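Late entry, evening session. Most of the bench is empty. Finally got around to the prediction I had been postponing all week. Sequence below, unchanged from the version circulated by S.P.
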Amino acid sequence: MFVSLLRKASICLICTAISGAAQSDVQAGIELVRQGKFPDALKTLRQALKQNPKSAEAHNYLGFVLGRGGDLSGAISEFETAVSLNPKYAEAFYNLGCALRLNGQTNEAIGKLRQALHLRPDFFEAELELGITLARSGDPIGAVPVLRKAIQDRPNAVSARNELGLVYEQVGDSENALRQFRQAVQIDQRSPESLNNLGVVLHKTGDLDGAIDSFRKATAARPDFGEAWKNLAQGLRDKGDLAGAIEAYRKLIELEPKSAAAHADLGSALRRGDRTDEALEELQLAVKLDSSLARAHFQLAETLAQTGKMDQAAVEYGAASQLSPRNAEYKLQYGVALAKLDSPKAVQVLREAVDLNPTPSALTALGAAQRRSGDASGAAETFGRSREISALNERRSRAILETNRAIAFLQKGQVAPASEALQSALAADPEMAEANHYLGIAMAAQSNYAESNKAFEKALSKNPQNPEIHYNFGIALQRQKRWAEAAEQFEAGLKLAPTSLKSRCALISVFERIGNKDRAAQEVAEAAHFGSCSADRR
């Protein structure tokens, strides 16, 4: 299930209040801007510029008024004039950067924002806007040090911590994302954006109770916060609290009565709670509001099938499958419905479902349809595949169970029973990356490095994109004083997770050990963008 992160909406500060001596003939216009009297300010500033066309401040404030009115081209032109008249006007460079970003000119915006910071290194608003712009332009790693500097300049700025948390989440660093959102909430316990974002990451990382609590606080802080109501409903639904989820979805619909997605999700929750009449009403409305919403058609089909209206259900399953042709579940249920109606299309549709995802249930349904159509040999082959995959899934489930037991033992420092559980996991599924990963950790804890290295290598052969495996293998190699190989693992992990401070600090430690002072210094400077490495941490 996807729960969206919410970025606090703003049109950026096209202009912050700018102090400084202004020429007497433009002062009246600037004062009107500060009072929020924009139509009067527009007229006054234009008149003033006829008398004094070289007033950089007047052009800057006129740009602000134009931007507020939606004339970005006019605003950009005025800001450009302001900086050409005064190349040291940091605020005007900042405003120009904001306007360019809003106009879709991202690269140009980044350049102007950097110029503002060159002129005023402690310019918090410019740091924040540059960080947001870098992240949105596909450079989240570049955004991290900029936003960290903004927080350094203004530690209690909730907006900066929220943005940094979002950037960390963007690069897959949920640990640091949680830290930033928690700190934002600590600064402002009524910040709805911070509470919502904290809840999203808690939900993603498995803390459902914590997520629900955070979403409840977000909706209490802002009762018209639709995104938080949606996230709360999804959290309650995932916990199995259907009554609570239904109530939250109804609150969302009060705020967004034309949202087909909200009606579809409410209908789904009602169906799961066996309130089929109400579910049908909501789902039919969802389809009416947006006939292109595949999941609304699918949930309507499920409800119709639940009430025995298979003819109508098949039509809705077909619509869902057509709208989302790569969704294996939609295709499977469409095929099952057709099979129940003895449709000759059933075998074809079920084959398509199996091609998308050959689960035992899809294969069993296909086999049954083949047998009904008279294809006995095809059915036998399909049932055989189903049994093979079922046996494989059973072994994988056993391996996952044993690996989770092992992790629990390791968390308690009980290495021997952890090793036994991992051996059982690998007996069930020798190819399981996580079981080999944790076996490597357990063996290293017992100084059995030959087996540890073998397990880590196996884990990486199956999951080379996991930075945690690279990190833990690096630590094991470090203990063996195999410095060059340890450095390779830490560097490989950093390519996958550039914000990982622990990997960066471990790499520094290796370079210090082997006397490579230049590389150690280089990595220390890089680490400073993401935090600091204390001696005990290294």
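Two things to note before I forget:
Residues 415-527 form a domain with the Serine Threonine Protein Phosphatase 5, Tetratricopeptide repeat fold (CATH 1.25.40.10).
Residues 16 and 91 are 8 Å apart (CA to CA).
Will write this up properly tomorrow.
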